[in-house]
Amino acid sequence: xxxxxxxxxxxxxxxxxxxxxxxxxxxxxxxxxxxxxxxxxxxxxxxxxxxxxxxxxxxxxxxxxxxxxxxxxxxxxxxxxxxxxxxxxxxxxxxxxxxxxxxxxxxxxxxxxxxxxxxxxxxxx
Amino acid sequence: xxxxxxxxxxxxxxxxxxxxxxxxxxxxxxxxxxxxxxxxxxxxxxxxxxxxxxxxxxxxxxxxxxxxxxxxxxxxxxxxxxxxxxxxxxxxxxxxxxxxxxxxxxxxxxxxxxxxxxxxxxxxxxxxxxxxxxxxxxxxxxxxxxxxxxxxxxxxxxxxxxxxxxxxxxxxxxxxxxxxxxxxxxxxxxxxxxxxxxxxxxxxxxxxxxxxxxxxxxxxxxxxxxxxxxxxxxxxxxxxxxxxxxxxxxxxxxxxxxxxxxxxxxxxxxxxxxxxxxx
Lengths: 125, 279
Hints:
The structure holds two protein chains of two kinds.
Chain A: H1 3-24, H2 29-42, E1 49-54, E2 63-70, E3 73-75, H3 89-94, E4 98-101, E5 119-124
Antiparallel strand pairs in A: 1-2, 1-5, 2-3, 4-5
Helix pairs in contact in A: 1-2
Chain B: E1 3-4, H1 12-21, E2 23-26, H2 32-44, H3 57-64, H4 67-77, E3 81-82, E4 87-89, E5 92-96, E6 116-122, E7 134-135, E8 154-155, E9 159-160, E10 167-172, E11 177-178, E12 182-188, E13 191-196, H5 229-244, H6 261-265
């Protein structure tokens, strides 16, 4: 059974219980809060993504560029690097981000021809 | 193709600065009465490619052949350069939000050849609030294709070309750029066009008798974080020497040899890496 169906079945059962309690005159705010919590849990979890272009392959390297996606949307970042949320990859890791991709060395075989914007790390929450 | 000629205005070091950073800003070079006329024309013909401009003598004289801009183009492209064959207007209704958007224009090639130049003209004042084009200085040496840039957003040391009305900036065609977020309300026009080389590259610009190649400054002024510092000097030197028509005389020997500026500054008669034919 799909996860969403499990959640919907659970919410439906809770609503039936609330209806019965309402008929009996015993419905309490906590009963409704339970349904609210269930709805929050049923919402699909969306991966947050943080791209960081750094000056080197070490996670301590200073950040050259950054892109942030939260809840499935790109979040514009300020132009001024002093306003960016992290100064290095390791700072982002300390804030709970997990590295899912390290700079790809295979692309750097010819350093006279292959240039991008620094060494790119991809992180997620 | 219609060609144009005039006196060059850039010196060797100004040419080198263009090679290093990939752009040159000329502020308030178009007279205000022409700016107003262009804006009125843009309002009357708001399409993206208003090639009707090309038939307007006043536009050709005052914008396409604008003395400071044409003098810089003449310096970089040589005599009898070709005037634009088409014009586009990046006309924007502000405010608007920009996410990502970094790109190099279609057909970008790797330097050092400079066979055409891209010019951008703001007929109205374009402060940060009106979303000026954002450039990444030095990025014309970064070979990343545009479709690999789609995820990029904030980049350190990017430069927003905020400028007064009548400003024109000239770029190496392959420089990375994007629109930027505009927070103010109104219409922003950005006229964009390309000039073409018809003459073989040669050192045909303003010659400063005090200029010495061994002392030329090819460094970008601060530690270049994106790439090896000496390679940045090398790439700028290659472009500069290509513009002189003398690239075949140059072979980079690496290390801190010329054109690495620190070595050159300390040369005192011996400048390793500087081709004898060019000294």
